[in-house]
Structure formats: structure tokens, C-alpha cells
């Protein structure tokens, strides 16, 4: 489970940050030791067990008392079981809670649909004042954690099955998409673990003489409207890719912007309003869901027909 490994590695990042900031604390949902943080700062590490609503309530209380809490909890459960607490305790009360959520998207494939987090982007981006980050690789996940600490207000960091993207060291600016590949025929806007698949799709399309721009939309909220507007105006054909339902997530957010701009054509790649019922390991379930590089390339090229 790369998402868990990536999330656990943030313990080292937070330990480094906590050495400089005594207000940083970690609240965990029965995730075990959190890297070196829990051993270095045992008095600042709280494991509340499998009780997600309580998890967020405790973190909100710590934030209200002046601490800077980072929550660690599995994405499908922390986003849904504790949605009311995130909305009310964190959003409505503007408490400075940062949520690190591994096992997002389809990463929990062999645990079945109950462990898929494919509604979380839609839920979290609806909350006023909430920042939603969805990094594309492990190094960017660490940059997202550091960036979240600088945001005034609640932040949700969605961590999935993240593979390293070779040579990718771009600074993460909240609300600013990153141009991963140049292109002029199609614009592929991807987020999270789908970014590396979009890059691979770019290479497949290039072999067919199709030039695809690839954007890493690591911030779902606030969305980079300028990058979307440029893709719609300059290219006109936009494809969104995400491990999420096409309704409400990245595809929904981009559709809203393009509808307001009144330009461009959009095709959304994601889950089409139905659960993935198959139980399979992650690479296999991506193919089943049409979210692997080959499927993305085929779907994107159909937009040229």
C-alpha cells in the first residue's frame, strides 16, 4: 500500500517541522507509530483508535487551544464517517486542522468498494474555507504537508498510490497547477496518482502523432482557473482524469469553470456514477476502471474524432 507508506513517511517531515514549531501535534486513527514523530514526540502524538468523528473533534479542540494538529486517517473513512465534524468543527469554526488521508481513490482495491475513497473530493471541496490538495508523487506529498502548515484554515491532503515522477521537483504553490508536458492537440488535466498515468498517456499519444498538454492539478480547491481557461482557449479540447466519480471531483470542478467561460469541449475520465465492484490489486483495478495509461490515451484520442 504505497499510500500508507507515503503517509507514514510524512512522520519524518512533521518531526522536522515540529522541532521548529512546538505547536505541531499529530492525531491518528489507529494507524500505529507515525514514523519517527511518535517516538521523538510521544507527548505530542495521540492515537484515538477507530473513531473518526472523535478523531476530528479532538483535532479541532487542539486547534481551538492554539495547537497545529495534523490528522492521519484513511481517506474513505475520515472523509465520510467524520464529514459532519470536518464541516462543523473545522470548516464552520475555521479551525486550523490539517488532514493527511492515505488510501484514497482506488488504492484499497483488494478490500472492495467499501475501502474506495471516490467521493472525498466532492465532499471536501464543498466545505467553505477548506483547501483540498492532491499531490502527484511522494516528494510532492511532502511538499503538500509543508504547504498545508502555511495555510490559514483546514486542509485535506489526499494521498493515493503514488509513484515517483522522474525529475519532478516543482515547488508546490497552492492553487497553481503545474505544466508537466507541453502539447497543442489535447489538454489532459490530472490529479493525484492519475498524473503519472496521464504522463504515460502523453507518451502513447505522441507515438500516434498527437500532442497532449499535461497539467498536474495538485490543488482541487482553490482551483487554478487560469490554467483551465488557457487550456480551453488555446487548445479547446480538455480531458480530466481522476480516481474519483466524475461528478463532483476534479471533472466536476473543471466543468463548472469551462461552463462559466463558455469555451472548449470537456471529456471527464473517472468513475461513471457506479461503484467498482471487482476486487483486485491496484494495477488491475485501474485497467478495469479505465484509468490506466492505455485507456486514458484511447479516451483522449476519441476527442479528436
Descriptive account of the structure:
The structure is a single chain. The protein is α/β, with parallel strands linked by helices. The protein contains 12 helices and 12 strands. It has helices spanning about 1-20, 35-40, 50-65, 75-80, 85-90, 120-125, 140-150, 195-205, 225-235, 250-260, 280-290, 295-300, and strands at about 25-30, 45, 70, 100, 130-135, 155-160, 180, 185-190, 210-215, 220, 235-245, 265-270. It has a 7-stranded mixed β-sheet, with helices on both faces. The protein has a 5-stranded mixed β-sheet with strand order 7-9-8-11-12, sandwiched between helices. Helix 3 (about 50-65) runs parallel beside helix 5 (about 85-90).
Amino acid at each position: 500500500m504505497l499510500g500508507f507508506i507515503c503517509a507514514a513517511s510524512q512522520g519524518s517531515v512533521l518531526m522536522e517541522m515540529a522541532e521548529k514549531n512546538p505547536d505541531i501535534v499529530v492525531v491518528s486513527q489507529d494507524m500505529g507509530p507515525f514514523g519517527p514523530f511518535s517516538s521523538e514526540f510521544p507527548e505530542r502524538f495521540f492515537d484515538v483508535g477507530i473513531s473518526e468523528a472523535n478523531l476530528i473533534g479532538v483535532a479541532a479542540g487542539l486547534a481551538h487551544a492554539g495547537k497545529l494538529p495534523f490528522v492521519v486517517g484513511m481517506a474513505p473513512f475520515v472523509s465520510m464517517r467524520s464529514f459532519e465534524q470536518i464541516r462543523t468543527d473545522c470548516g464552520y469554526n475555521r479551525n486550523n486542522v490539517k488532514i493527511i488521508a492515505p488510501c484514497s481513490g482506488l488504492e484499497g482495491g483488494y478490500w472492495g468498494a467499501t475501502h474506495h475513497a471516490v467521493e472525498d473530493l466532492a465532499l471536501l471541496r464543498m466545505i467553505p474555507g477548506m483547501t483540498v490538495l492532491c499531490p502527484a508523487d511522494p516528494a510532492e506529498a511532502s511538499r503538500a504537508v509543508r504547504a498545508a502548515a502555511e495555510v490559514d484554515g483546514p486542509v485535506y491532503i489526499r494521498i493515493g498510490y503514488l509513484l515517483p515522477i522522474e525529475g519532478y521537483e516543482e515547488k508546490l504553490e497552492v492553487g497553481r497547477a503545474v505544466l508537466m508536458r507541453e502539447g497543442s492537440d489535447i489538454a489532459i488535466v490530472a490529479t493525484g496518482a492519475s498524473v503519472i498515468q496521464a504522463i504515460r498517456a502523453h507518451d502513447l499519444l505522441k507515438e500516434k502523432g498527437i500532442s497532449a498538454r499535461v497539467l498536474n492539478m495538485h490543488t482541487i480547491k482553490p482551483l487554478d482557473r487560469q490554467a483551465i481557461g488557457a487550456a480551453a482557449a488555446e487548445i479547446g479540447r480538455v480531458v480530466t482524469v481522476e480516481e474519483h466519480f466524475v461528478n463532483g471531483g476534479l471533472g466536476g470542478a473543471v466543468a463548472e469553470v469551462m461552463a462559466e467561460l463558455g469555451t472548449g469541449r470537456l471529456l471527464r475520465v473517472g468513475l461513471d456514477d457506479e461503484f467498482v465492484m471487482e476486487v483486485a490489486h491496484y494495477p488491475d483495478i485501474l485497467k478495469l476502471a479505465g484509468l490506466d495509461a492505455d485507456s486514458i490515451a484511447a479516451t483522449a484520442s476519441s476527442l479528436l474524432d
